[in-house]
Amino acid sequence: MKKFTTGVLIFVAVVMLGWIAFLIVQAISSEPDATVDEIVQEIEDSDDTPLLEDTFVTVHLEVRQASTMDAGWGDLENLVALADEYEVPLTIGFTPGWASYALEEGKLSEVRAWESSGHELAMHHHGISHASWDGYSNTPATSGRNDFLGDMEDLMVILNQLPASGQILTTGMTDEDVDFPEGILYNTTNRGDGAENPTASGSTFGSQGGPSPEDMISSPIAATYNGVDVIELGKMGFAIDHLSYDLTLEEIQERVYGAEEGQVLGLVLNDNTMEEHLDEAEDLFILLSAMGLDVQTVKDILVDVEL
To answer: φ and ψ at 173, to 5 degrees?
Structure first.
């Protein structure tokens, strides 16, 4: 009986210690994130200068219902105006629905004006593997589906009407090994399993591991998708609700100051950011400026890179 009682007491003690440890962890993790003003003050009080300089902010214009496009376009205009205010050139990735809307609703002159002011007009593509397929694919089995809109050549006919040059140069997409289109030179993507596990294309990036903060700092690499040779950079989403990882300004600051010379910071905003978190996008732009980073479009960062 005595041994039984002792065992019970030990068990209760272990449970209580575990509960106390859990409460401590919860208390630590529930501490509020530092505000952008606090981070900027910390930067101004420090003599440290990041070795990393080149930075890009890309915008994924996601697949959405046609009935929501008017509101979505207004959100995009607000984001572009905010970026202009902080001198942040965006790499704006159009899915075909957004591109068609711009062409059909008389928005092309506005889009070209964004391009003239320093923003890049890029491509964003959701292939058949994505939960929100955009309707375009080179996969033969998709051509018989009711929601099939065309192959990637058809998609590029639409998108290439946006830039003044007639050729989109940058993409961020899924299904690269099947859908990667000719003419694209630069790809932005997630690292996935990391550099020790390159994909069949030779890339050390990919969607295998999902979005990770490790993706936001990268060096340009060469990769080949669907027979197309490209230069590739990593990226990570910011202020996007559906992502499993909630990237903070503090972590961006920490990783930038821990990066090596020649590396690149890549961040992603999307429809959700524009609609619900424009204030957080502004905080991001303030932080990038405070760190003295050189924000450029993807093509401007990579145009002179030779691998």
So the answer is: -155, 170
Give the CATH fold of the 36-302 domain: TIM Barrel (3.20.20)
As a whole number of Å, the CA-based R_g of the chain is 23
**Distance between CA 162 and CA 122 in Å, rounded?**
9
- Give the pLDDT band of residue 244 (cuts 50, 70, 90): confident
SS3 category, 187: strand
112-148 confidence digits (pLDDT tens): 999 999 999 999 999 999 999 999 999 998 988 999 9
Shortest CA distance to 270 belongs to which of 91, 35, 86?
Answer: 91
What local confidence, expressed as pLDDT, does residue 202 receive? 47
CA distances from 35 to 242, 265, 287 (A): 22, 21, 10
Tokens of 251: 């972590």
The one-letter code for the residue type at 91 is T
Residue with tokens 């981070």: 39
Helix (H/G/I), strand (E/B), else coil: 10? helix
Q: At CA 237, angle to CA 67 and CA 296, rounded to 5? A: 100
What DSSP state is assigned to residue 132?
T
The candidate with the shortest Cα–Cα distance to 187, out of 76, 96, 307, 63, is 307
Give the rounded distance of the alpha carbon of 76 from its chain centre. 16
3-state secondary structure of 13: helix
Sequence letter at residue 25: V
pLDDT digits (tens, 9 = 90+) for 83-113: 999 999 999 999 999 999 999 999 999 999 9
Report d(CA 70, CA 66) in Å as an integer.
Answer: 8
Give the integer Cα–Cα distance in Å for 239 and 278. 9
